[in-house]
Amino acid sequence: MQPSDPLREQMIAQYDAMSAQLQQAARYVLEHPEEVALVSMREVARLAGVQPATMTRLAKFLGLPGYDELRAQHAAALRQRGDGFAAKVRQRVDEGSGRGASDTASHMLQGLSAQLAKLCEPDALRQLEGTATRLRSARKVYVLGLRSCHAVAWHFHYVMTLLGERSVHLDGPGGTGGDGLIRATSEDVLLVISIKPYAKDALELAQLAKDKGVGIVSITDSEVSPLVGMSAQTILCPTETDSFFHTLTPALAVSEVLCSLLAEFDRPQTLEALQQADEHLSHLNTYSTAIPRRQ
Amino acid sequence: MQPSDPLREQMIAQYDAMSAQLQQAARYVLEHPEEVALVSMREVARLAGVQPATMTRLAKFLGLPGYDELRAQHAAALRQRGDGFAAKVRQRVDEGSGRGASDTASHMLQGLSAQLAKLCEPDALRQLEGTATRLRSARKVYVLGLRSCHAVAWHFHYVMTLLGERSVHLDGPGGTGGDGLIRATSEDVLLVISIKPYAKDALELAQLAKDKGVGIVSITDSEVSPLVGMSAQTILCPTETDSFFHTLTPALAVSEVLCSLLAEFDRPQTLEALQQADEHLSHLNTYSTAIPRRQ
DNA sequence: ATTTTAATGATTTATTTGTTGCAAACATCT
DNA sequence: AGATGTTTGCAACAAATAAATCATTAAAAT
């Protein structure tokens, strides 16, 4: 963000030499420099998830006399930003007049940003809430998304897996994806994600599920999507870009919001489930705890 | 400076009704709003040349519960200025006076929208462009994303597959994911996506690839991500939400932008590749052409 | 001129802050 | 294994903080 902030650079440079807790503290400071300037040390520590003492230790590790100096530097940086405001705008204009790639990228990102903002409209929120409610009451949640929608389906399933064991992902090698539905009942719900062009297999599987009495909810792209007719709840999200492809970013955002709503519904249970997942994964040594040597 | 700061306007409006000391305090606050946010009340009082108690009285005079609220408001204003681009979007956040789920959803979506807007800043655009350039010149592009990042990796790979045959997805059943690298050379590039907590396997595979001379580019979440050190190009994207989970929406957006930039680079070839894909898929009868019967 | 009212200054009080010392837990290396 | 050095969490501390209280002063009204 500020390439010319010496303290920042020092933290990045010395990051590898820090202990785990120090790294966690440093990471938060790097990512939330304003907070360091604006709130108390204990509060920063709380937000960073470390002991208050660790913040002091971080300051000393960086060669500063104490935490106050750390805050002072961040405060100074924040003060300067008021002045440097004009410079930033100028920089943007310079570049904005420009050529090619950055322009395309910026335009596309702004479009996506606007699409997400649009999802905040009352209609969309109602759909989200309705769908979350329906999913909440399900015994099992089957998740189906083929081809381009695989990414969204899988991610939803992945998060739901961390949360409990109600989720079944309808996908598998050798075309066995549909087998998950063998014992599906009317107590279950199928979340199907599909956008134009709609994959035939997805529609057929959804129809099959519906015939078995499974409740259908869907994330799709249009009022006239084939999914709308067979779904008890539908969330519509935009997919258009000015590029060649349809975007799945709004759909992924929607699925993440659904996960959050479901998680938020029963916080204690969610926390317990997440802790279980943590333990399991740490036993499996899945994640890199210490940062490996840099090259 | 801030025409839409209600507290500011209130102070100006009520200025005449204040006592001499209160006016002096208010004047300083109006002229040095950053200081109010950044230093203690007593210090502000000293700088303003009034008694500490006067600052408390000023806050109460303005109808606030106490000085803390005065500082909180100035801090919030300062925070927003930092976000710059996203500020516009952020303004609406507090409007939701609401209850429950819709509120959570709306808040989260607005946050995501702001994060995408932030990616339009010059720094991020530079990273995007640099990475796209690096990917463009690669003979083959290997794509690696494990666990939560699988969704992004797979989607990138999927789109790249429609575009040509340069993409290899490093994933597979039975832990065979790394096998794709067997014939990787220094002409190739590995795109690795990983966010905290970083999957050990992903880091190890990336390191292996690097040792083979493969160029590394990455999408990750922090300056101090272990990927930064081993990558020729890195795109940083935010992952924080106020929910339990990290979001992958910005990462997906970034990957879609990368795809677009690559596609845009050679439009004729892209169009041809897409037409081929269309033909292939229509021969396979993959997509539902007619909208099936509604129920 | 005297009372009343508001404003300002000084003092006190209960919190909160940043720091430090110490013991348990941890990893590391013979 | 056992010993050693580091890292980490906890609790106690002194300093500083914001607010509440009381005393004094200045101005306004009678």
UniProtKB/TrEMBL annotation, chains A, B:
It holds the Pfam family HTH_6. InterPro entries: Homeodomain-like_sf, HTH_RpiR, RpiR-like, RpiR-like_SIS, SIS_dom, SIS_dom_sf, WH-like_DNA-bd_sf. The keyword Chloroplast does not apply. The keyword Transcription applies. One of its GO terms (molecular function) is DNA binding. Residues 131-268 form the SIS domain. Residues 5-81 form the HTH rpiR-type domain. SUPFAM superfamilies: Homeodomain-like (SSF46689), SIS domain (SSF53697). CDD domains: SIS_RpiR (cd05013). Keywords: DNA-binding, Transcription, Transcription regulation. GO terms for biological process: carbohydrate derivative metabolic process. PROSITE patterns: HTH_RPIR, SIS. This is MurR/RpiR family transcriptional regulator.
